[in-house]
Amino acid sequence: MSYPKVPYKSLADWCQLFHGFWPGKPKFKEDKYPSLEGKVVIVTGGNTGVGFESVKSLAGSTKAKIYIFSRNKEKTLAAIKQIQLEVAKEYNVANREIHFIQLDLSDLTSIKPAVEEFLSKESRVDIIINNAGVMTPPVGSKTKQGYELQWGTNVIGHHLLQRLLDPLFIETSKTNPPGLSRIVWVASTAQLLAPEGGVYWEDVNYEKLKVTKNVEYIIYGQSKAGNVIQARTWSRKHGNPNVISSSICPGYLDTDLQRHVSTIEMKIGGWLLHPRRYGAYTELYAALSPDVKDGQHSISFGVPSHARKDLTSDAVGDRLWDYLQKETDPYV
């Protein structure tokens, strides 16, 4: 079996790649956020990293009702207390309520119960930030259902979650002005490392190849290309003109996402990575800025960019979407 082919990078691709090292300062910040009063926002993985910062920024500067969907109850409740302390100190907003729904994206059987719990509490959802993710875990790591961990968590898990939330999300969007209802798919510039067409269909879970260091990054890139394709394909499959579905690379950031990288990579990252709070500005640019268009891909820290050319065709989107629908059918 041959190794996956990664397309040559265009000049625009190289520019996107290097932008992450010297992105400049974020310009779309809290002073430009809408109030979001009466609106409901979901952030997956909002208990750590960029998600933590996005929840904090939303809690301090908007009146949205915020839900964190995450796996570990104890850690999330502790994170919520920490967010509340920081919001009180930085934004002078006391006793800010933030809600928790337990969800494990690496176990598809946990997702429907989580959505049912949410639906028992809410009659609307306005913004969904699919933020949670895994990067370069130990080789051979699997989800509960046997998928390669990054593919199963970053792509399949989020697809099922979004699929189950879609009925309420779409109904809510009909009551909102155009562009207020949004889905943010947190991808990465690692989309440029993905196999041609985004997915190595000969061996989606990389069970037959020897996984070298280079292949490790191709596997991660595949999961992030999946998110880019999901963002572009969601609107085409649903046809809701009020909704903006877009993908982002939050930036090259110092977060817990790097916990599986080597010591050398960690040291290099210390010189090159940016504060995780800046990544929240990228997420919230995609979630709130009036300048964002449906299907757009944005990069750090709120700059319009592009998806790799071979990831943008309808045929590529249809193939992934059909696969994801089939894989999640048993859990709907």
TrEMBL record:
Database matches in InterPro entries: NAD(P)-bd_dom_sf, SDR_fam
Keywords: NADP, Oxidoreductase
GO molecular-function terms, A-Z: oxidoreductase activity
One Pfam family named in its UniProt record: adh_short
Gene3D superfamilies reported in the protein's UniProt record: NAD(P)-binding Rossmann-like Domain
Family membership: Belongs to the short-chain dehydrogenases/reductases (SDR) family.
PANTHER family referenced in this protein's UniProt entry, alphabetically: RETINOL DEHYDROGENASE (PTHR24320), SHORT-CHAIN DEHYDROGENASE-RELATED (PTHR24320:SF236)
Designated name of the protein: Oxidoreductase
Organism this protein belongs to: Candida maltosa (strain Xu316)
Lineage: Eukaryota, Fungi, Dikarya, Ascomycota, Saccharomycotina
